Amino acid sequence: MRAAWLRAAAPVAVLALTLTACGGTNGAAGTAGPAGAAARPNAAAAAPAADTGPAAPSRGGALGPGRSGTGRYREDAGKVTYEVAAQKVRVGTEAEAQKMVQDPKDANGLVPATAYVKFTNRGPSVVTGLPRVANGTEIYADGQRGGLLLGSPANLPGCEDPLDIDDWAVGRSHVICQTYMIPRGARSLEVRWGDDDAADPLIWRFGPTG
Predict the structure, then answer these.
(1) What pLDDT digit, counting tens, does each position of 139-181 carry?
(2) Is 135 exposed, middle or buried (0-12, 13-18, 19+ CB in 10 A)?
(3) 38: number of CA atoms within 13 Å, CB side?
(4) Beta-strand relationship, 173-183 and 110-121
(5) What angle do CA 59, 133, 75 make, to 5 degrees?
(6) CA–CA separation, 31 vs 24, rounded Å?
(7) Distance CA 135, CA 143 (A)
(8) Whole-angstrom distance, CA of residue 47 vs CA of residue 65
(9) Do residues 74 and 125 make contact, with C-beta atoms less than 8 angstroms apart?
(10) Has this prediction a pTM greater than 0.85?
């Protein structure tokens, strides 16, 4: 697994990626975790949920990894209803994080966390043009939102590039990933998804990162 992750991350090391501050007051991922905490390399926050058959969709609130909820997101053609399921979070190493930003110092104490989220178009219409639904995905570490990594790799195994998704038909599913920088050694992770004006986002809780 570690070798595969490094091969996927290496091509983006030369790109001009930008780490944006998203919550917190010092750095891209907010407050760091407990002093002395260290993440094991390439630790997975949680494995995909076992396939136990279709899950009953729910709206808002907390869900187990891999369980689905529903919500609406505004695309170019208007509001579209999606069934959404955060399958897993893949956590990398501090060394990998330093290769993903222009200045390695910006990633001191941080690791990349990639959320794998499955979206199913439930209508009422085909999504034409670039789908925006993945923009509603956020990762929180120990209660604080991480720093979104703009231009993060879309070609990680199991992730689809939104640029390659054309005419997303009703009933079709795609797995779209988002990568955030989070403090190394975070005790808990949450993947949250919702529209910009969602008062009750969908939340999936995962375990320790290391």
Answers:
(1) 999 999 999 988 765 568 899 999 999 999 999 999 999 999 9
(2) middle
(3) 4
(4) antiparallel
(5) 105
(6) 6
(7) 20
(8) 8
(9) no
(10) no
